[in-house]
Amino acid sequence: MSTTPLRPYNFSAGPAVLPEAVLRTAAAEMLDWHGSGMGVMEMSHRGKEFTAIHAAAEQDLRDLLAVPANFRILFMQGGGLGENAIVPMNLSRGGMVDVVVTGSWSKKSLKEAGRYADALAVASNEADHHTSLPAPATWALRDGAAYVHVCSNETIDGVEMGELPDLAALGSRAPLVVDCSSHILSRTIDWSRVGLAFAGAQKNIGPAGVTLVFVREDLLGHALSICPSAFDYKTVADNGSMFNTPPTYGIYIAGLVFQWLKSQGGVAEMERRAIAKADLLYGYLDNNGGFYRNRVATQARSRMNVPFFLADDALNDAFLSGAKDAGLLQLKGHKSVGGMRASIYNAMPLEGVQALVNYMQDFARRHG
Amino acid sequence: MSTTPLRPYNFSAGPAVLPEAVLRTAAAEMLDWHGSGMGVMEMSHRGKEFTAIHAAAEQDLRDLLAVPANFRILFMQGGGLGENAIVPMNLSRGGMVDVVVTGSWSKKSLKEAGRYADALAVASNEADHHTSLPAPATWALRDGAAYVHVCSNETIDGVEMGELPDLAALGSRAPLVVDCSSHILSRTIDWSRVGLAFAGAQKNIGPAGVTLVFVREDLLGHALSICPSAFDYKTVADNGSMFNTPPTYGIYIAGLVFQWLKSQGGVAEMERRAIAKADLLYGYLDNNGGFYRNRVATQARSRMNVPFFLADDALNDAFLSGAKDAGLLQLKGHKSVGGMRASIYNAMPLEGVQALVNYMQDFARRHG
Questions:
Q1: With an 8 Å Cβ cutoff, is A114 touching chain B?
Q2: How high is the mean pLDDT in each 10-residue block of chain A (368 residues)?
Q3: Do A25-262 and A265-367 come out as alike in CATH topology?
Q4: Could you tell me if the ipTM is greater than 0.90?
Q5: Would you please indicate which residues of B are annotated as catalytic (active-site) residues?
Q6: Touching check for B200 and chain A: CB below 8 Å?
Q7: How far apart are CA A179 and CA B232, in angstroms?
Q8: What's the CATH number for B25-262?
Q9: CA-CA distance, A89 to A94, in Å (whole number)?
C-alpha cells in the first residue's frame, strides 16, 4: 500500500497550498457563480455580483484580523516588491525612512526605498547571516523619520518577530510599516502599533497577483507627485480599490480563503495550529542526532517558513527526490540560502508536517 | 420552451466572457494540474510546472500575433491604468510625449503621462464627443518626441483604428506606443510600425490582473530613476517576467485562451468572425427605423465594443431587464456615455450577437 496521500502535501513558500475546500468551491463555481450565469472571471468588476464578492472579502478580512475602523483595506497589485516602491512613494514625503534589516525581504525594501527617500538600515542581523532578531532597544531610530519599516516574517530566512515593536515606547513618533506577507492571518496584529501593513496574498492566502494593504487613514493623501495614480493609496481608497480593474479572481479566491478561515475558528485557531506545527518540526530539527539542523536563533524562528539543512549536502537531491515520491512537494530551499525549506502555512494541516517528519526520520535512518 | 440559452451570453466590456472550453479545463485542473498533485494557484512560480505553463503561454502568444524576435513579451500587473504611468516612466526620458486623443482611455493616458513628461494632445476627437478618428495627416507631431501614444481601440467610446499609423511616413522618428487592450488578438498587428504595445488581459483575453507588454528591445534600459524596479521593463525582461511573483493563475488562464485561439484558427479566423459579428450588429443598428442608433462614424467603429442608444432613454431599464431575462447579460453602457454597450470579443460567438439582434427586434416591436 502506498504511503502517498491522495493529494500530496505542498510545502511551497509561495504561491502556496490552498485549502482543498476552497479549490473545490472554485472549481464548482467556475462556469456559474451562484446562478448568475457567469464565472467570477467573466464579471464586470462594477457589477452587483462582483461588488458583493469584494465587499464580503473585505469584511471577512476585517473581522478576522480585527482591523479598526480608522484603517482602510485596499486590494492592489504588484506584490511585496511593488509595495517596496509604493510605500515610500506614498509615505516617505522624500524624507527619512528607517529600515530594520532582518533578512532578504527587508534588504530589498531598504534598497528600493532609497530611490525615493533617505533610507537607512537602523538595525541589521546581516552579521548573523539573518538568523537572529536585533532587539528593538538597539535600533538606531532617527528623529523625524517618515516611517520605520519592518518585515515581521522573513520568508527566505525563516525569521519571525514574536511581537511588533512598540515604536512609541522606543521614543519614536514615526508610523510603523509592516511587511507581513508570509505570516498574515497566522497570528493577531496589534494595530495600535501599526501605521501601514501590507501582504502579497500568494503566501499565506493563496492567489498571486493580489496585494493587501491596511493603511491608517491619516497616512493617506501624502503621495509624491511621481506616484502613479493606480498606486496612490488615497486614489485607491477613494475608489474602493476599483480605480483600475482589480485582480477580480484572486480577490474571489482570497475571499473563499477568508470564509474557510472563519469556518475553522479564525486567527486564534490558526495560531494554535501554527504553534503545534512549528513545535513538531523544530522539535525534530533540534533532536535528530545532527542529521538535520535549523540555524535560526530559537527566539527568532518563523512558525511559517522553516529552512533546514542536511549535514551532508551531497544527500540533498536524494532527499528531495524521495520526498516527492512520498507526496511531499516543493521542499527545496531558496537559492540564496540553500538546503531545504518547509513552508507550513495555514492551509498545511498538522498531518502534513507529521508526514514530513516521518519521512525525514526514515530518510535519516536509511542514510545516517 | 424558454429562449434562454443554457449559458447566457455575456456582453461585459471587461472582465469579460471566456471561452466555455477554457473554463471547463480550468475547473477540471483546479486541484491537480497534469498529475503534478498541485493546482496551478499552488505552484511556485519558479518550479518546472509553472515555468512550462508560462513559457507555453508566451510562445503561443508570440505565434498568434507573429511577434518578431526583437520584441520581448512581458507579463506584468497594474492593467492599462498602471501602464499609463509605467510607459512614460520607462520611455519618456522626461522629454516630450505626443498623445492622440480618441476617447476616454487615451485621455487618461495623456493626463497620467503629464506627471513624468511634457505630454501633449497632438490630435483629438473631443469636439466630436469621441465618435471619429482624426486623420494621421492632421496630427501635430513634434520633432524629438520620446514616443507617440495611441489607443487603437477605445473600449468606452467604441472607436477603433482600422490600421496603425505609419509614423515614419508622417515624418516622425518616434516609436509608436499602442494601447490595444480591448481588441488584442482580434486582428493582426503590423509590428514594423510599433515600438511598444500593451494590453490589460481582462477584455479580450479574460483574467483581470495580467498586463501584456510587447516591447522592442532597443527601448529597454531607459527608465527614469523613480521607476519602481517591479515596473522597469528592463528588469522585468531580464528576469523573464519573474522579478516579482507574477499573477500565475491569470497567466495560466491566458495561456488556455491562447491555446483555444490556435485551435479555432488563430487571429485570422478571429478577425473573420469579428467582421461577421460587427456587420450583423451595426447592420441592424443602421437599419431599424430609428429605434436604436450607434453614433460613431462608420470608418471609426469598433468591431469589439459597440455602444448604442435607444431613441427613448426612458426604456433603458426595461431593455436591460428584458435582456437579462432573455439570457443577454451586462449590456448597460459605461456611465460616462450612457445607453447600452455590447462588447463582442473573441469569446462571443456569432450566435450571441444574433440572439442580441433578435431580442432588440422583439423589444422594438413591443415598444416601438
A1: no
A2: 67 96 98 96 96 98 98 97 98 98 98 98 97 97 98 98 97 97 98 98 94 98 98 98 96 98 98 98 97 98 98 97 97 95 98 98 96
A3: no
A4: yes
A5: 105, 179, 203
A6: yes
A7: 22
A8: 3.40.640.10
A9: 8
